[in-house]
Amino acid sequence: MDAGLWSLDNFGQILIATIHNGKTFTWNAGAVSPRAQRAVVMASAPTKSRLTQVSDRDRHVFHFGTETTVGSSTTQNPMFIRFSDQENFNSYQPTATNTAGTFLLDKGNEIMGAVSGKDYTLVLTDLAAYVIQYVGPPFTFSIRQVGTNCGCIGQNALSYSNGEVYWMSGEGGFFKFDGTVKAIPCLVEDFVFTTNGDHLGINYSSGPIVYSEHNTLYNEINWFYPKAGSSQIDRCVTYNYAENVWTTSSLARSSYVDQGVFDLPYATEYNKSVVPNFPIQGITATYGASTYYAQEIGVDQVNSSGTTSIDAFIQSGDYDIANRSSGLGMQTGVADFRGDGEFIMSVKRFIPDFQLLEGNSKITLLLNDYPNNTAAGSSLGPFTVTSSTDKVDTRARARLVALKIENDAVGETWRYGTLRLDAKPDGRR
């Protein structure tokens, strides 16, 4: 997996590209006829680094997991950091007259990733988090550990958004840095990280290809990863930081670029069995090809195979019920959705509330008498709902009731509003 893993950053019009555990190259987009120019090995730079990063404000080039002796690949240390002289990415030997320097991190086994914020660079090892900040001469940079037991799973498994860094941990779980390191509560954590029977969680050995990117349009951070037993990305977990909501999908994207120059994000999907239209010289078709996508446009999946629906659903948690009491302790007969499972509830009808509905949607009532049990009797539905549906009459009885809304049709989309159930206590059990 390391052979095709690159880190890319810009130094003005200069592209700085480092192949994982290899050399660093530069390519000048401002040169005369730049497309006729080939990338060249960076002069006087370390010959073996895990990744590189440019600190934007002060314009230093950082080499992470690099050589303790520049030019000697056998001295590579996965926890060693070397940075260039300011405004000079070809100067790495510290002197009294330049700002080049080094750090050696002590918490972890290897540097996994780094990202530049507004006035800092966050460095993640497999165990800890560090912040590097520019302080000027004579020390140039300060470095401090800001978190432990929060390591990153891979160099592309972190994203920067609005002053905050988000990443996936190699130990299972998600974190963010907003001045301090915080674990992000995740309701789908078991789905992502746990393999149990037929359920396949993440392939932990696939860290190098786990990919994260920010989707500005919807305030989302996406992580694309392969499930256990797979060597290709075939899953996605998404965190909406504005609404604090998690979703999962089978969206497979091997690279992703947020909107910026273009109005939409763009992404690629790699398939090792696809024959490329334009094979690289000397590379056989057996290595597969990538499909290029415009994201967040339309409501369907469109590729060379045709148009298919994007199947989507949401499912509420279980609701139980109590019989609300008066101030004197008398039962009123009014339902209160904060019960302890004492009462069976009767659901007479539900009222769909769609903020957006193009086409149809299907709603199912999931009934249960005990948590983690199979449904009591049978679920009701699915009921087909349109934009003109005012209510749906039901005859549901259960201790626990959940609502599932779904759609699997081409050309249709929906956005749900507020749950409304006509329910009342219907005896104790």
Brief summary:
The chain has two domains: 2-309, YVTN repeat-like/Quinoprotein amine dehydrogenase (Methylamine Dehydrogenase, Chain H, 7 Propeller); 313-428. The protein has one helix and 36 strands. The protein has one helix at 189-193; strands spanning 6-11, 14-19, 24-28, 40-41, 51-55, 60-64, 80-83, 101-104, 111-116, 121-125, 128-136, 140-148, 158-161, 164-168, 174-177, 181-183, 211-215, 220-225, 235-240, 245-249, 255-257, 266-271, 289-294, 300-303, 306-309, 312-315, 322-325, 331-336, 343-350, 354-358, 361-368, 380-385, 392-398, 400-407, 413-416, 421-428.
List keywords for this structure.
Methylamine Dehydrogenase, Chain H; 2 domains; 4-stranded antiparallel β-sheet; mainly beta; 36 strands; elongated; 429 residues
Written description of the protein model:
- There is one protein chain.
- The protein has 429 residues and is mostly beta strands.
- It has two domains: 2-309, YVTN repeat-like/Quinoprotein amine dehydrogenase (Methylamine Dehydrogenase, Chain H); 313-428.
- Helices cover 1% and strands 45% of the residues.
- The strands form eleven sheets. A four-stranded antiparallel beta sheet has the order 1-2-3-4, with no helix packed on it. The chain has a four-stranded antiparallel beta sheet with strand order 5-6-7-8, with no helix packed on it. A four-stranded antiparallel beta sheet has the order 9-10-11-12, with no helix packed on it.
- A hairpin with an 8-residue loop joins β21 and β22.
